[in-house]
Amino acid sequence: MERPKVVILGAGYGGLVTAIRLQKKMRGRELDVTLVNKHDYHYITTHLHMPAAGTDHHDHARVAIADLIDPRKIHFRKSTVLEIRPEHKEVVLEDGILSYDYLVVGLGSETETFGIPGMREYAMSIKSINSVRFIRQHIEYMFAKSKVYPKRKDYLTFVVGGAGFTGTEFVGELADRVPVLCRTYDVDPADVRIINIEASPSPLPPGLPVDLVEYGMEVMRRKGVQYRLSTVIKACTEEGVVLGSGELIRAGTIIWSGGVRGNALLQEAGFEVQRGRVKVDSCLRSYQYPNVWVTGDCAIVMSPEGTPYPATAQIAVQMGTNAARNILQTVRGKELRPFVYDYKGTVASLGRGEAVGLLKVRKVKGRFAAFLKKCIDTRYLFLIGGLPLVWKKVIFKQKYME
Ligand code: FAD
Ligand code: NAD
């Protein structure tokens, strides 16, 4: 008898955890599972602000998928998804077509530019291993270039658009990295400017208590970060960013962390979306196609208060676990289990040894919060790769290729 075919698109938090849970929980060769991802590694997005700034190596933020997947149970295909055809139950890859009985979409998010002119052309975003390698190299290049063109002070101006979690975490790392780069390139630290521009009146996402936000700003200011709050970027040019007031801030580096939207492939496939994300039922299935599960940043899950939960790795992991369980329940003809989000808290790094956050409702800050952030990262590695992965990545700090 033909086994039900499950295709999982994307080996990010949602897709990878779905695959790992199916691998663990399926009986024998109950399902024919294929995991598709454009790289042969999984990247730890929650760590990417560090290699982007150059305070850590990018290979510490990725893990070979071959180390996580049992090829006897899950077939891994390194390929790029070009199109999803839910009407025909098939997916078009760059090198072929895959058909499925059940599909899991975990293709993550894309940078939201809100149509701001020049943003795509002149700004960089923290998205992937490739993007952070580029950002790191670019930052170093600007330090080197500034010495050859000493009149161009703007070469040492770094603008970060958006002071949500991504912008804040990156700015904290960059501020830590600047003294090292100044020494390497013989640059006077007084010539370097890091400007974080935020449309709302305060940095960090709404919902974080005011005293934690103030603490975060104080830490950043001590490191030399300048804030421009209640200030909108309305355009981006080769020279820098144009603010709502018309002022031009000349900058050699623009990092855009103004928000994300779901992967465009979903909208192109005819799914009904809001900011590229698909609203899912209580069991994480598409309302239009009940054989399609949507996880992570591609999905909108509503809270009991009726607002969408933020797109985070934390929820993506829990969604992956639920999707795997419900696929098995479906093929076994059993009742599905609704997804219930267990919010454990949020911690945002502010650079070396500093962080702020909430542990459920308890406020945490400083070294303790930074330690907590490390624990959260380690817990995730344990979840996907057990002790051997924790051993490799945390204890021995092994790089991806070693
Ligand atoms: P992703 O993890 O983005 O994975 C998507 C996967 O799909 C990737 O492997 C990608 O290569 C693959 N893919 C995409 N398109 C294609 C295609 N066409 N074909 C084949 N493969 C494709 N959240 C937290 O909870 N805590 C944090 O501390 C935190 N820190 C963050 C720090 C940064 C700098 C950023 C940018 C985000 C952070 N987040 C954090 C948010 C979190 O990373 C995302 O919510 C999470 O990664 C979403 O998981 P996902 O599975 O939906 O997608
Ligand atoms: P975000 O949407 O949370 O923040 C974007 C920020 O950019 C907002 O504060 C917004 O006001 C600002 N902005 C938008 N347009 C602007 C403009 N034209 N000019 C100036 N400012 C502008 O996006 P993010 O920070 O990339 O986070 C994306 C998701 O990833 C969120 O769900 C977040 O919770 C999650 N995340 C979590 C962590 C963590 O838990 N430590 C870290 C990073 C990201």
Classified by CATH, the class of the largest domain is: Alpha Beta
Mean pLDDT: 96
CATH architecture of the largest domain: 3-Layer(bba) Sandwich
- Note the main sheet: 5 strands, parallel
Which fold name is given in CATH as the topology of the largest domain? FAD/NAD(P)-binding domain
Low-confidence parts: none
Number of strands: 25
State the strand order across the main sheet: 5-2-1-9-21
End-to-end separation in angstroms reads 42 Å
Structural class: alpha/beta
Shape annotation: globular
Helix content: 25-40%
Q: Number of helical runs?
A: 9
Which small-molecule ligands are present, each listed once? flavin-adenine dinucleotide, nicotinamide-adenine-dinucleotide
Q: Give the total of domains.
A: 2
Determine the strand fraction and express it as a percent band: 15-25%
As a whole number of angstroms, the C-alpha radius of gyration is 22 Å
Describe the structure.
The protein is of the alpha/beta class and 402 residues long. It has 2 domains: 5-38 and 79-111 and 260-343, FAD/NAD(P)-binding domain; 119-256, FAD/NAD(P)-binding domain (3-Layer(bba) Sandwich). The chain is built from 9 helices and 25 strands. The protein has helices at residues 13-25, 49-53, 119-122, 129-148, 165-185, 210-222, 264-268, 313-331, 366-395, and strands at residues 5-9, 32-37, 41-43, 62-64, 74-78, 81-85, 90-93, 96-99, 102-105, 109-111, 157-161, 193-197, 225-228, 233-236, 240-243, 248-250, 253-256, 260-262, 273-274, 277-279, 292-294, 299-300, 345-349, 355-359, 362-365. The strands form 8 sheets. A 5-stranded parallel β-sheet has the order 5-2-1-9-21, with helices on one face. Helix 1 runs parallel beside helix 8 (313-331). The longest helix has 30 residues, at 366-395. The radius of gyration is 22 Å and the shape is globular. Nicotinamide-adenine-dinucleotide binds next to helix 5 and strand 23.
